Amino acid sequence: MVPGMTDKPRFTLDEVLNPRSVAIVGVSPEKTASFAVSAVASLMTAGFPAVYPVNPNYKEVFGLPCYPSLTAIPGPVDHVIVSIPAEKTLSLLDDCARKGVMSVHFFTAGFRESGEEAGVDMERSMLQKAQAGGFRIIGPNCTGLYVPKARLVNSSRTPLTPGPVAFISQSGGHAQDLPMHGGPRGIAFSKVISYGNALDINECEMLEYLAEDDESEIIAIYIEGVREGLRFYQALRRAAAKKPVVIYKGGTSDAGLRATLSHTASLTSSVKIFAAVCRQLNAIQVDDVQEMIDVLVALRF
Q1: Is the pLDDT of residue 5 over 50?
Q2: At what angle do helices 271-281 and 229-242 cross, to 10 degrees?
Q3: Cα separation of 261 and 297, whole Å?
Q4: Is 239 a residue whose pLDDT tops 70?
Q5: Is the N end or the C end of the chain the one with fewer CB atoms within 10 Å?
Q6: What whole-number distance in Å separates Cα of residue 4 and Cα of residue 221?
Q7: How far apart, in whole angstroms, are the C-alpha atoms of residue 120 and residue 118?
Q8: 269 falls in which pLDDT band (50, 70, 90)?
Q9: Contact between 42 and 153 (Cβ < 8 Å)
Q10: Residue-wise pLDDT tens digits, 98-124
Q11: Is 288 helix (H, G, I), strand (E, B) or coil?
Q12: 103 dihedral zone (left: phi>0; alpha: psi -120 to 50; beta)
């Protein structure tokens, strides 16, 4: 917690999904294939209003001024993308609180999903700092936000035309693959949220939000596990009663269960129970991303 700071009211998902300024911490022009570089280049190409690279080792990145720290940025910063080693993240969050940011997306991994107690402790401290500072955390260990209407992108491969499909994904890879492969088949997106370890913003909160979101007529979900079973059930029931919900559940084999646990430290214990819940609530369950695209095309057209 920042000394002298008390818990603040937290930003809503509607605010988080509509930032007007983004800082990318840890971007390096020497690592041209990195996520941070892709984020900067994609935001610039998309015409996002304000993009701020942050790295004390550079004065300029891709023609933009590069700042030594978050607090050195002269204007307001709504959203922060973090791509620095895990051990450096706690001090950065103090800067986020001082800067008054709305949300922090951690592409950085090496937290709870590592299976190490140090990673668990670090996440606990991260959440305490976010609650004290009033900002939200997306992730860690994820690719974050893709909101075409807001020109908020993290890959040059995703289309900029907004549409009626919302996608929440525990996997960063699927969060990028679905728009990339679905776009040529006519699927356009309102919001795509990759949420990784779900330290703060989780699948329940997002599902509750999207059920009421007028821009999202269809909800797609890739999920590996939930920690709030009853809340998820209630959120899924409300959402599926209002609009089509398509779910791809990861880890449906023994090997898959082990893989999802190591990926995002999440585990849903019974595949059969999950399938039964989907049938009971009229959510459409699919077995892979390609089948999800096929179903979305059928629902959309």
Answers
A1: no
A2: 30
A3: 31
A4: yes
A5: C
A6: 40
A7: 5
A8: low
A9: yes
A10: 999 999 999 998 888 877 888 889 999
A11: coil
A12: beta
